[in-house]
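On clarity, I found the account of how folds are encoded harder to follow than it need be. What matters is that the chain and its backbone geometry are given together, residue for residue. For the editor and my fellow referees, an illustration may be useful. For illustration, here is how one protein appears when written out as sequence plus structure tokens:

___
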Amino acid sequence: MSRNQRSDSPSSVTWILPLLVLGLLLASRGCQSPGPGPGPGPKPSQVCLLIVEESQQRTPETAEILVSSELRTWLSQHKHLLRIVDPDAVDSSGNPPSVLDPYLAWRSAEANRSVTLPVSLLVRSDGSVYLGGPLPGSAAAVIDWVRANTADQAEQPRGSR
């Protein structure tokens, strides 16, 4: 076989499964299972930004958002978490990983069934979804969306605390 040919033999792809499992395990930390249910309530100060996207259909625009250092830095500076998951992901038992629980609960509501992937969800620390919808079109737009929908104390005008 020449150096440019791809090998589809099982031995050449067996390393992928452990990496996927590791990624799912790491992704499941931080977004807990849903609480009593989504609702508006007060804006949360810290959230898990859960991005659910079909990795097989990833567009260049979505890829740019997912790898954006600007987005990751801003989320980290504001103590928000980021989790990215494929809705078809399964754990070692063949079940959806717990990181998908908020998405599955949100998706079960009639109003959310028609929203197409990719979606972004703001998940509270108790696992309930504060807000969800289509993924904004750029990293800057995602930051603006998170900023507008969280009670970030660091960005309040002086004297408003």
